[in-house]
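In the laboratory, one determines a bound structure by crystallizing the protein with its ligand and collecting diffraction data. In a computational setting the workflow is compressed into a single prediction: the sequence and the ligand go in, and a structural description comes out. We illustrate the idea with calcium ion.
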Amino acid sequence: MPEKRLSHLSPDVRAQLKAVFQEFDLDGDGFLSAEELRAAMVRFDEHLTDGEAKALVEKHDRGGDGRLNVDEFLRALDAAALG
Ligand SMILES: [Ca+2]
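The predicted complex, in structure-token form:
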């Protein structure tokens, strides 16, 4: 799978964020739903409403299935929390 470089996430930070992804993938399906994303973002002091979480998922969801895989999650965080 081709992987676009994230502008300002170090490999260490990415590894940590992947662990966060797995922690918040509550049903273990390998994707974060809007609800799971909302819970994850609290970790970064980003308190999203349901609507904001859904909008964030839709913005970064390239698969069009309403969920984020780990790369999409990293991009969402990059844009929303850490940018
Ligand atoms: Ca999930």
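Helices lie at 11-24, 34-42, 50-60, 70-80. Keep in mind that any predicted model is a hypothesis to be tested, not a measurement.
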